[in-house]
Design brief:
With 284 residues, the chain is α+β, with helices and mostly antiparallel strands. It has helices spanning 2-39, 41-69, 71-86, 271-283, and strands at 93-95, 108-110, 112-122, 130-133, 146-149, 152-160, 165-169, 177-181, 187-191, 199-203, 216-219, 231-241, 246-253, 262-268.
């Protein structure tokens, strides 16, 4: 250890001996600039302005670097804030018009809440694709909860552990999501044919209903998973299937699943009640 320190000191001394005249020149130059700035107001102001510009540029670049490395925490804060804002929109509440049925004397009762989560692994090029998120049972995440993104639907939670969960995305052969045309309000079902992760298909829309390229497709709210009005995408093209009387509709997803980093897991507070009703009907 001592020999390494000695070698380093010897190298430093040799370096200073070799380039001492450069350092001496810089020191004398700095002294000369100092005297000029002290004895001449005009030249002093020029020097001060130049120094301020240089230091300002350095501080600006340092600030950009610092902000770049803080983007992750900023994004997490924004996602958390968006989750809270989503809970305040009208589609997250059920409105009662008959005040006799109201509990706790309110005409609104919250149905959905949102838990922000980060996508930590995903697949896109398989026939059946899944995402893994960094939230699980400890955050209240359970199987069959729906998952959405800032710009659209993502999928359904299929498995959850204490700290993680697997999400079956819309890019899966078993994915079927109740949707509707925002303009006409006609309902259909969103599916995926396994061809392109940027596009899906809407089935079960009668060919008697007028469609337009560019029509927005949203969740219908007819299932217990997704709130009504979550954007899915827009109609890219469509054609009539004369054999079935329905359209073949191609939809371009509003979410770029390849770039997706943060999602919201949707909690439906009425889900158990809805499931009991559905089981009762099936058992009859």
């Amino acid at each position: 250890m001592q020999s390494i320190f000695t070698d380093a000191m010897n190298n430093l001394i040799r370096f200073l001996q070799r380039y001492y005249y450069v350092f001496l020149f810089l020191i004398l130059e700095a002294v000369a600039i100092y005297f000029i700035s002290c004895n001449s107001f005009y030249q002093g102001s020029l020097i001060t302005n130049f120094a301020n510009n240089v230091s300002g540029s350095i501080y600006e670049q340092c600030d950009k670097v610092a902000r770049y490395f803080s983007l992750a925490s900023v994004n997490e804060a924004l996602v958390e804030e968006n989750a809270k804002l989503r809970e305040q929109i009208e589609s997250s509440y059920v409105k009662y018009t008959d005040r006799v049925m109201v509990k706790d004397d309110t005409i609104y009762k919250q149905q959905f809440s949102f838990v922000e989560a980060k996508v930590i692994s995903k697949s896109l090029n398989k026939r059946n694709n899944y995402f893994m998120i960094n939230k699980g049972h400890s955050s209240g995440i359970e199987k069959d909860m729906s998952v959405i993104a800032p710009n659209g639907v993502v999928g359904i939670v299929t498995e959850a552990t204490e700290n993680f969960a697997m999400v079956m995305t819309v890019l899966h052969q078993d994915s079927k999501i109740a949707v509707k045309n925002k303009r006409t309000q006609v309902a259909g079902t969103l599916v995926w044919d396994g061809d392109n992760y940027a596009r899906g298909q809407v089935i079960d829309i009668p060919s008697s209903i007028p469609l337009k390229v560019g029509d927005t497709i949203i969740t219908s709210g007819f299932s217990r998973n997704f709130p009504e009005g979550i954007e899915v995408g827009y109609i890219k093209k469509f054609s009539k299937d004369k054999g079935t009387g329905f359209y073949n509709v191609e939809v371009r997803f509003s979410t770029d699943y390849n770039k997706l980093g943060y999602v919201y897991v949707v909690k439906n507070f009425f889900r158990m009640e809805q499931e009991r009703l559905e089981k009762g009907v099936k058992n009859e």
